[in-house]
Design brief:
Strand order of the largest sheet: 1-2-7-4-5-8
Oligomer: single chain
Shape: globular
GO molecular function: DNA-binding transcription factor activity; sequence-specific DNA binding
Strand content: 15-25%
Largest sheet: 6 strands, antiparallel
Number of helices: 14
Keywords: DNA-binding, Transcription, Transcription regulation
Distance between the termini: 52 Å
Structural class: alpha+beta
Organism: Luteimonas aestuarii
Mean pLDDT: 80
Low-confidence stretches: 1-37, 299-319
Protein name: AraC family transcriptional regulator
Pfam families: HTH_18
Length: 319
Amino acid sequence: MRMSMATGWRAIGRAHWKNRTWRALVSRPCRRQIRGMHDVQTQYLPIRRDAARLVSALLVDESPQPLARIATPSPCAQLVARFGPTVPGGVDVHLLGPQRRVRRKHVGGGHRAILLRLRPGMQPAIAGVAPSESIGSAIAIDDLWGANAANRLRAQLAAAMDANAAAALLQAAIVEQASSARGASPATPRLAFALARLQASGVADVARAVGVSERQLRREFRDLLGLSPKAVARLDRFARAVRAGQSIASPSWAAVAADAGYYDQAHMIADFKAIAGVTPRALLAELRVATPIGGSGFSRPPPDASATLPTPARRTPRR
């Protein structure tokens, strides 16, 4: 049975930003730094040394007011802990699987979340479920680690006195889970190497570079990410096009398409409609109203907590 938030974060879940309980969680200089559009706060936290091989980014996202939120798709899963007055028991932990579509949601006021973005290939060891089985889904931690472990973690999070303490608990939990698993696949280092080169090269070139067949490379991507190399490259092109469009007041969409790696503008528009459901122009208009979910590709994280895929200097357009 889930515990209520008897201490610490119980007050946080019910408090507005002006409430001194939540204000105590984040230093004043940091509050000034992360206060942004619609007064949403996103704070990147340092990653523990023993969790660094499992987690690529760790952040706290806080919505003091009810807001429309939006997030870019990502090939990597996230472990999410939510705190708020409408969350059952006051605290909820779930795995958000790889996402192939833009997500839109309405977040109630007074809600906070801690998000751990998992490194490519680490989901099976941490969650015990294949990425292909969690695409586009949110899976309760009870269904991954069992009721006893889930209840213990929720109780610990409910007693946490601040965001750093809660984040440390989540990191300790995934380190424990990973240590009891069979270990990372031997293909995981190869996956990271392939991801870094996939943006500027075709699948055949990447397979040769890592020393495997195209068929094996595709199988390893599906086993460790749940997506094919082509699907991962598609999401990356889309995210690059969005960021390029946001960085220019009146973007030339033909130039944005070429720089992002699309064959032409028509191919880019088709991708936007498939992934976001709207045209590039309509999505940019939406982003001026809806607030990006912290850590998504629609927001700009600091260099040490950037998105999973590195940035090449220039890319060769592909059909």
